[in-house]
Write a structure and sequence with these properties.
337 residues, four-stranded antiparallel beta sheet, 5 helices
Length: 337
């Protein structure tokens, strides 16, 4: 990935939001978002962290487990193994798929069979997971392996004659449902590095300048020449992000997918507001009780239903059970005299 590095000084423009990338690799990306308000910048951070879809192990069927770890413990560890989520749009959500349970259009199958036959401890890693062939492409669902030895995450350890055999079903999801679907390990978010807006009340003993070190973004903005009173109308316009991925999606793709998801949310909101333009004329949905026939039937003392029937009868007029009496032997009329 090649990006233009951030320029010194104020490069704020007047024609809308702007993103300037200062550093990026497969795992990390640092960028500045400007010409937006705080709510939009924070919305992008939240969407990148919790609503960018990925794939993770969701179901585990264990056939044999004679290790010292419980089935639930191993299942939890398997769910946290990052899986390649490139081109995740080719995979359907299982709730939107036409299949009965799972298929190659909405899931990826992984299998594992390990048995220790020596006296030494056998370590089972993510690389030992075998990915099935029924999937949208050849890389989605592959365990993410970034260590120099090419082993991946450690799943468990086996002693002699211990065995682990299982089948995993990986599905598409978002971190709002479970943290295993999170594409990021952390997202740093900062603005106003010199605290010119006084949004922070720094605790200090003698001198806050000496006791609170400045961030690396302090070089990009100028501090105030002298302290000023709090300005209620002052708002930040430059925001600094540090996105740390876990390898299942490239760092720059996390930003792009976050922007796309934010656009989908706003489009859905606009569409929903547009549907209610004629609400006062031909609205067919539910209304509050006061809006039905001027509230008739709702201002009594509770002896009648909204449909005018006596409170002791159903909407069809039946005041008794199917056998003419109540379970207590009296008629369908009230038992009080």
């Amino acid at each position: 990935m090649e990006y233009d590095h951030m320029m010194d000084g104020d490069f704020k423009e007047d024609f809308g939001p702007k993103i300037q990338v200062s550093a990026a690799d497969n795992i990390h990306v640092d960028f500045e978002l400007s010409n937006v308000d705080l709510s939009l910048a924070n919305s992008l951070r939240r969407v990148m962290h919790a609503e960018v879809p990925t794939i993770a192990i969701d179901l585990v069927e264990i056939e044999a487990n004679t290790s010292v770890l419980a089935d639930e413990f191993i299942s939890h560890r398997l769910g946290l193994i990052p899986l390649d989520s490139s081109e995740i749009d080719q995979l359907n959500y299982s709730r939107d798929c036409d299949c009965d349970q799972n298929c190659g259009r909405c899931s990826v199958t992984l299998t594992l069979h390990a048995k220790c036959t020596s006296d030494e401890v056998m370590k089972v890693y993510a690389r030992d997971l075998v990915v099935g062939y029924d999937r949208p492409n050849s890389h989605i669902g592959n365990p993410v392996i970034t260590d120099p030895d090419g082993l991946g995450s450690l799943i468990c350890k086996l002693r002699k004659d211990q065995e682990l055999k299982l089948t995993c079903i990986a599905k598409k999801g978002i971190a709002k449902e479970h943290a295993k679907w999170s594409p990021t390990a952390a997202i740093g978010f900062e603005y106003d590095p010199h605290n010119n807006l006084h949004h922070l009340d720094l605790w200090y003993e003698t001198n806050p300048q000496d006791e609170w070190p400045k961030s690396k973004y302090a070089e990009l903005e100028e501090p105030l020449a002298k302290p000023e009173d709090f300005d209620y109308d002052a708002v930040p316009s430059r925001f600094y992000f540090e996105v740390e991925g876990i390898g299942n999606i490239q760092s720059d793709a996390i930003i792009l997918e976050g922007v796309k998801e934010l656009q989908r949310k706003l489009a859905g909101l606009i569409h929903g507001l547009g549907e209610n333009d004629g609400m006062n004329e031909e609205y067919d949905g539910p209304r509050s009780p006061d809006a039905m026939d001027g509230g008739a039937g709702y201002m009594d003392q509770g002896y009648t239903t909204p449909y005018g029937n006596p409170g002791g009868a159903s909407a069809w007029g039946g005041g008794a059970t199917a056998y003419g009496t109540t379970p207590y032997g009296n008629s369908g009329s009230s038992g009080w005299s």
